[in-house]
């Protein structure tokens, strides 16, 4: 198996491990520990035991690493799971522009902007509702 396929497997396994562990932890905190698969219960039990000797961040990182290693093997990764590469910012120090404006535009105050009635969006709904009411009244009138 090539190293590029192992790298792809490693990336998928890491993402799945991070998501699954966070989900398991939340389910356990909400009282659903017994509903989790036995492997998830094992990872969470080890995590909880380590909290007595290390910080939450360290225990979480180690637990995610354990889940990642298990997933890497299950997904067909060859050998030991590689250490994940440090995430680098994709912007390389450049500013990223927001897709939508953050504040009010065209000199409108924020208060006026947020309290303005939504006539543009509600007008079609009112027209449809009015048409239905008129139709029901007309049908009722004709039925007499």
Summarize the structure.
62% of the residues lie in helices and 0% in strands.
Q: Please outline the major beta sheet.
A: none
The SSE order reads HHHHH
- How much β-strand is present in the residues? under 5%
Radius of gyration: 28 Å
**In terms of structural class, how would the helical and strand content be classed?**
mainly alpha
- Averaging pLDDT over every residue, what do you get? 77
Question: What is the tally of beta strands?
Answer: 0
Specify the overall morphology: elongated
**How many angstroms separate the termini?**
81 Å
Low-confidence stretches: none
How large is the count of helical segments?
5
Q: Give the oligomeric state.
A: single chain
Q: What percent of residues adopt helix (DSSP H or I)?
A: 55-70%
Task: Describe the fold and architecture.
- The protein has five helices and no strands.
- By secondary structure, it is an all-alpha fold.
- α1 (3-29) crosses α2 (38-50) and α2 (38-50) runs antiparallel to α3.
